[in-house]
Amino acid sequence: MEGILGLFDEMEHEYRRQLLHAAFGLLILLFPFISSEILLFLSFLVVMGLTFLPEDSRICRYLYMKPLPGSREMLSDNINQGLRSAKNLAISVFILMLISSLLKFTTYHLPLYVIAGAIAISTFGTSAANFMRHRKKLQTLRIGAAGEEAYEGYLLPSSIVLLGVGIITAYFAGIWLMYWQESAVSINMIVFLAVIGSITGALFESIPSNIDNNLSVPLGSGMMMWLFSSFGYSVPPQQMIFALVFSIILGYLAYRTKIADLSALFSAALLGVLIIVFSELFWFILLLTFFILGGGFTKYKYRYKESIGLAQSKGGVRSYENVFSNSTAALVLAVLYGIYPQHAELIIFAYLGTVATATGDTLASEVGTTAHAQPIMITTLKPTKAGVDGAVTVLGEIAALLGAMIIGVLPVLFGKVDDAFLVIAITTAGGFLGTNVDSILGATLQKKGVLTNSGVNFVATFAGAIISGILYLIIV
């Protein structure tokens, strides 16, 4: 009974901390009435105040439990961690304010409505998520160890809460500033940035890291919103919401089928939203085909690959690293398509090449490692061991060719192109050659430790895009 009361006491203090954390977000109400220089100074004062706040102060006693016998050291650690977390949030706001002040009269100005949105996401959004998460933690601790798995499964709903509350509060923060400052920013832009910033915040919050979320979430969401606000590109709210719901549902299905973890879910959602709004739904379907084929073939003969030490870790579940290393080139090209429609055909062929490379490389790795024939090193053509960076097999090369060809055939099946042979030929060639660039990089730069496996994938997908783009320019 005493233990349960202790848990309730702990949760009561946790709720107090989260309420104070959320209350910090009310700072955005002052934005229309105070200059950015004064806001910068105020955020600096908050950082200094939290830095020198004594552990035995009244606010620390209010926010943290009274020490039990023998627990003073643990209490001190909790206070230090809590103060550090609060200070990190204040530092994040100070950094954003400092950037805004320094670039105030330049083309790359960081707007206050972006800072307000980032603060709303990292205060109201994360506090709402933590409320839900700690409530579930209390329930699971009460029912014993069997509830720990249920708590892990509750991470997704709390992250969705962060996403939803973040979008709503970031939207109202933008509307608040737009009303008082009579800004020319459109409603479309406010909604667009609120969604992009909130997905980014949920993504950073879901990534296991030693970096405090009070640094990564506000800075990550703020930088992403700043980047896309500078493009001046937005879409109607209904299109943005459709892209968000569609991407989240597909990411959830991947999460439930253990193809992706939570960070990969939000990474794919962010990619999906941006690709859909800057290009069209079919572009995301192409990328989705890569994820499905990659996830499916990861499970192909998984036990055999595991027995020889060549299986994907975590049962083949993809993380945010897998998503971004294979899809950043696709995202860049989709954004360029929206900004430079006059180069649409060239960008489309480059996009097909990068997705074909990612698909071909994944199939070559997952299928090629099951080959019973001895692999050869791509740079020397000499026999080598399976799984060595740069090792290739005939079976793997065939799989890469077929994987790239699948991406080339899809636009034909969906009636997106006129010259079917040209599209299939350029896409297949770009994907196949890009896959072998991946192998060459693995045998050279990765083997020397210059690039990681994710770095190799990142470079190779850009190489596949360039190859397909050059082939298009030569042939057409």
UniProtKB/TrEMBL annotation:
Membrane-spanning ranges: 20-53, 89-106, 112-132, 153-179, 185-204, 216-233, 239-255, 386-414, 420-443, 455-475
Highest rank taxon of the organism: Archaea
Cellular component aspect of the GO annotation: membrane
Subcellular location per the Swiss-Prot or TrEMBL entry: Membrane
Keywords: Membrane, Transmembrane, Transmembrane helix
Bilayer topology term: Multi-pass membrane protein
Matching InterPro entries: DUF92_TMEM19
Pfam families to which the protein is assigned, alphabetical: DUF92
The family this protein is said to belong to: Belongs to the TMEM19 family.
PANTHER family assigned: TRANSMEMBRANE PROTEIN 19 (PTHR13353:SF5)
Protein name: TIGR00297 family protein
Native organism: Methanolobus profundi
